[in-house]
What we know:
Elements: E1 3-6, H1 9-20, E2 25-28, E3 33-38, H2 42-52, E4 61-63, H3 67-70, H4 78-87, E5 92-97, H5 106-109, E6 114-118, H6 123-132, E7 136-137, H7 152-159, E8 165-168, E9 179-182, E10 190-193, H8 199-205, E11 236-237, E12 247-251, E13 263-265, H9 272-292, E14 297-300, H10 309-320
Parallel strand pairs: 1-8, 2-8, 4-6, 5-9, 11-14, 12-13, 12-14
Antiparallel strand pairs: 2-3, 3-7, 4-7, 5-6, 9-10
Helix pairs in contact: 1-6
Bound molecules: threonylcarbamoyladenylate and magnesium ion.
The site of threonylcarbamoyladenylate has 29 residues, from β5, β6 and β10.
Family: Belongs to the SUA5 family.
Keywords: ATP-binding, Cytoplasm, Nucleotide-binding, Nucleotidyltransferase, Transferase, tRNA processing
GO cellular component, one term: cytoplasm
Amino acid sequence: MTNLLDASSSGLQTAARILREGGLVAFGTETVYGLGGDATQPQTVARIFEAKNRPRFNPLISHFADAQAAFTQVTANPLAHKLAEAFWPGPLTLILPRAPYSTVSDLAADGLPTLAVRVPKGETVQALLKLVQRPIAAPSANRSGRISPSDAAHVLEELDGRIDAVLDSGPCLVGVESTVLDISNPERPTLLRPGGITLEALQAVCVTIFMPETEVDTAPASPGRLLSHYAPHLPVRLNAVDVAPDEALLAFGNTQPNGAVISWNLSESGNLEEAAARLFAGLRTLDKQGQSHHLRGIAVQPIPQHGLGLAIQDRLNRAAAPRPALPCPRKICQHER
Ligand code: TXA
Ligand code: MG
């Protein structure tokens, strides 16, 4: 049984105790719900992978209450301090060299010489991390390859019975995951995943940002960039200017093609922040309703390619990507994507 905890002080105390004892607690952040566990305990980290059916080659982000705590686990450079000052707490994950004295387990870091660190925003998650005082590994609280959860009910749909508790802090305000920026070489800040902090905002702090090509091999620079991900059961058709009678419609803006029986508008006013916050709930809802109406897919209207539009499009591209059985070297990886 998974215990549903509210964000009261007793709920927080219980969640913190479970985490310190090596249990698994999903909690809300400003981006999506994370499946949290003590990153310093290898057995706990192994349970995270098991609960998610996650490929083991995916390293996890360690979460902290503040930059000072985060920078005890990595070798921070001046650019890291500048970015932390500008964006933390907030939806930015920094990849930095792992400190020689880091207590984060090899399993959480996947044995890499770098570590992903993040200071999430939100009263509840901040209070929790302050109580726990440990690096908390937290991938999104969904089964591997599936849609990320943006409220506590979504987490239970994915993981009920597989984790100890869910700390309910209501719906997530940003709605897409953090931006992942590799600054392990500060001369070459590289955007590994677009997310809640926009490219424009990053560029205002570190003039040039590099972008790797999307990789589909078995050992990508950032495994969250595997092509098929965030996948609903129904196939997804992008940049749709029309909709077939047997398709559900994920709409954007106030001009919609006619004919959809089931639709979800990301933002009628064309606001990209609102659209990001409603994205995963929309995909989940259309997927469920579409299947029960025997529809054959989800058509998605074009999304403007600036600001949070990049992160939204990235998630939609993955949701729409073909789902081949990727070569997968380790047994734990089940081809759910
Ligand atoms: O918003 C978020 O970041 C959420 C919330 C829960 O904090 N977490 C999340 O975690 O999205 P996850 O595990 O689903 O995504 C972590 C991403 C993956 O793309 C992973 O490959 C990348 O960060 N990552 C982690 N450590 C890395 C490293 N050392 N080098 C490169 N990429 C890394
Ligand atoms: Mg994820």
